[in-house]
Write a structure and sequence with these properties.
The protein is built from 11 helices and 11 strands. Strand 9 and strand 10 form a beta hairpin.
Length: 383
């Protein structure tokens, strides 16, 4: 295989990877005539850009279809077709032989910035821009030097705050790490007049929907202009949360409230054989329980917090329940909101959904999730 054939084959592999993983690829037309090495700085820049996009998507390995495997074999006769990103990248060397003479018409090393293609758009929407309130009460001398415009923030729901029942604290993401309950390193709060909707959504289990970053950091000026942030809400495409639904009977409400009052959680056993054919909730998923009556229905929105071995701390008799010989696993859920009472006509959108009475199986479609969210937001809790 001559250098020109190798160059064309590499470009075709990059094009196929782009289509397979939804990347941005803008190949630069090669005007070189005659023999070439088969790769060049332009080719390498294109490959590095695709590698960067894949890694931003969390893709460490790529899947090669049969045709792509054959292409890689042609590039590397006698070798393997390992789909590791780094190995595939080595098809185009990162360093070039100093002896290669760049002649007229042959691609030359690209100027700085030439291949800085636009970053893939982050799937988020503007929610609000506001001041970081109360920063002066949290020892700014300890953190001010760490602040910069664009710094990532974390929003923390502080339900135990004695001064504001809707308190939402703000902390630097790098200070929080994995501890989402660490209020020792907060730098301030979402202003009281701005926090009610955020607090309500976080209480309903959608706290992960928010991201934020500092957009103004000033050493002087009006108090509420010195430290400001922009809050974003993730789009549906970014949400990994799934929703499920299950029918329940008239005794459900009484039993649920008894368990919640005693333990703060409700426990279930769901499963079935073969388990790989079951589409059941995962940790973090929402489950809606519905009890239909003559003219209306009770709805309960619950959040899955533990499954299987993770549920052991919540079980009344862990040894007995974990030793049970069946195809089911323990599930632990908390109540997000409910019961809310809705007219049956408001649930017509569920007519096309299969709703089981044994367990919540099968994810709800996005349009049904959106309508259920509206119902839980707009209806009052009936006690």
């Amino acid at each position: 295989m001559n250098g020109k054939d190798k160059c064309n084959l590499l470009r075709e592999i990059r094009r196929r990877i782009t289509e397979q993983y939804g990347l941005t690829y803008q190949p630069v037309e090669c005007h070189h005539e005659g023999n070439c090495a088969g790769t060049c700085p332009q080719c390498d820049a294109e490959l590095q850009n695709l590698q960067k996009q894949l890694k931003e998507k969390g893709i460490e390995n790529i899947e090669l279809d049969r045709q792509m495997e054959e292409m890689v074999r042609n590039l590397n006769p006698g070798g393997d077709t390992d789909n590791n990103l780094i190995d595939l990248g080595d098809v185009a060397p990162s360093e070039y032989d100093d002896k290669i003479e760049f002649t007229e018409g042959m691609p030359v090393p690209p100027p700085a910035g030439m291949f800085n293609f636009p970053e893939p758009k982050k799937r988020r929407a503007f929610f609000k821009e506001c001041a970081v309130a109360g920063w002066s009460f949290h020892h700014p001398e300890d953190f001010w030097d760490e602040l910069y415009e664009g710094a990532k923030l974390v929003l923390l729901r502080e339900r135990a705050n004695k001064h504001d029942c809707n308190a939402v604290a703000v902390a630097l993401a790098e200070d929080i790490g994995g501890d989402v309950e660490d209020f020792d390193c907060i730098i301030g709060y979402v202003p009281r007049k701005e926090n009610e909707m955020i607090a309500n959504m976080m209480d309903m289990g959608w706290g992960d929907a928010f991201t934020a970053e500092l957009t103004t950091v000033k050493n002087s000026g009006a108090y509420d202009e010195r430290l400001r942030m922009t809050i974003y809400i993730k789009s549906k495409e970014d949400s990994m949360e799934s929703w499920f639904i299950q029918k329940v009977n008239s005794n459900f409400s009484k039993d649920l409230m008894r368990f919640l009052y005693q333990d703060g959680v409700a426990r279930f056993r769901w499963g079935g054989f073969p388990p790989w054919e079951r589409d059941l909730p995962r940790k973090g998923d929402k489950v809606v329980f519905i009890h239909k009556r003559e003219a209306d229905a009770e709805l309960y929105l619950m959040h899955t917090i533990a499954i299987g071995e993770d549920a052991i701390p919540f079980l009344e008799d862990p040894e007995e329940e974990m030793d049970m010989v069946d195809d089911c696993a323990p599930y632990v859920l908390t109540l997000v909101k409910g019961p809310v009472i809705v007219n049956l006509q408001e649930l017509d959108f569920l007519n096309s959904c299969e709703i089981g009475s044994y367990q919540p199986e099968g994810k709800l479609p996005e349009n049904c999730i959106g309508k259920l969210k509206e119902l839980f937001f707009t209806h009052m809790i009936i006690m």
